[in-house]
Amino acid sequence: MIIWKKVSNNNNIVYVDKRILFTYNLIDHWSKREFKMAELTKDIIIQQARIRFIEQGYEKVSMRGIANDLGCSHGALYYHFKNKTALFSDVLDYYFQELNSIIDRIMVQEENDKLKDLFLEFIRFGLDHPYQYELMFMLKSKEMDSLMQRPATESYERFAAAVEQASGIHLYSDHIYSIFLALHGFVSLHLHRIENFEEAAEGAARHVEFLKKTI
Amino acid sequence: MIIWKKVSNNNNIVYVDKRILFTYNLIDHWSKREFKMAELTKDIIIQQARIRFIEQGYEKVSMRGIANDLGCSHGALYYHFKNKTALFSDVLDYYFQELNSIIDRIMVQEENDKLKDLFLEFIRFGLDHPYQYELMFMLKSKEMDSLMQRPATESYERFAAAVEQASGIHLYSDHIYSIFLALHGFVSLHLHRIENFEEAAEGAARHVEFLKKTI
DNA sequence: CTCCTATTTTGACCAGTGGTCAGTTTTAGT
DNA sequence: ACTAAAACTGACCACTGGTCAAAATAGGAG
Fold first, then answer.
1. CA of A215: which chain B residue's CA is closest?
2. Residue A144 Cβ under 7 A from any strand D atom
3. CA-CA 20 to 30 A from B78: which of A120, B17, B86, B123?
4. Mean predicted confidence (pLDDT) in A90-115
5. Same domain, B140 and B204
6. Residues A130, A72: contact at Cβ < 8 Å?
7. For residues B5 and B181, which has the higher predicted lDDT (pLDDT)?
8. A199 and A181 fall within a common domain
9. Residue A14 has pLDDT above 90, yes or no
10. Is the CB of B61 under 7 A from strand C?
């Protein structure tokens, strides 16, 4: 990414990533600009926030850190997003979509044990996206929760409908909810204690088997 | 609680709680001391930390805030505790004990539905002690987790043993673990979304009923 | 090309955090 | 009364999320 950087009033440096491309001096003000500043868009901010988020988690990612990666000031981020919560709410939209499409994919497959897959893949998603899951289903603050509630509910309803369909029989909504809670319990207890799904795969399989038997 | 407070070098004020008791001046240094400073003990710090913790939660309680309540400097707290984590680890010991005695109490009662009580009271404990539960069973950091793991495991084992005994039959440990996860899931999903157990009592009762049927 | 306005961006600033540590005060024993 | 150990202080550090006046840039109209 190209970054223009002002050094003194008229002395400027143009970077590509972190390396100097060239320097130049302003005569008047570079009227009829041949260059534009690399534009800072919501999208590019979200993208960078996600990169840091995946390895550091919400708490440890700082707005200043993101701004630094992007070669802009942290103040600029607050022009595009009301606050940190709003930024990460947008980051998470992506993952709600991912979870939804996991569910959809299982339902269109053939010859698979759909119930088992639904349960197991939900757990896998949680454990392979620990920081994301944390914010999606284990709220950190009232403010974050109010932003997550709608997409979380939508994902749950998609899951619930899929479970009923996969079972081939009528299920009480309480029953499905209890199963969901049990899956959530597994994820939330193992979150951050293991590195990835595989480490808990056996336990997950047993838990899933237990839940399947209730149907 | 009595607090001595230095104002200028020789001008001192003695407080009881937040109100002035009397002032005095030092001549030399108050040799052969008639008074002792109100001592700052681990216990009194834990006690005050708990008070703030209950209403604010781990993140929002600050060491400076606690020190202020206690009329000492925040540095003093670090003399007694290595860091914030260590302090709150001690705060939580109390609640692990409370959870353990809830389990014990249920088991010595007579003519009660022990399984139902065990399940329901676990949920009640979690929802009525949201900030505590969060730290006890939903780790915030590797450091906190390593301190919580031992007492959490102990509490779980007590719970598991109680469940098996209450059921009157042999239960596979995987089965008990799955039930525990399901209860944990209920608590962790409702935590902070409701004010107290009563608000979720009906849902909790249905979830518990579902789990009982698996036995 | 010159203005002029609107949009973006900057960076000093604020109030707050957990944590450290040299220097001081207080305690307790000799 | 002296001394060594224990307890405590508060300036300091590096950091956080967030604000905002001022400055830079963009884009259109004349």
1. B214
2. no
3. B17
4. 96
5. yes
6. no
7. B181
8. yes
9. no
10. yes
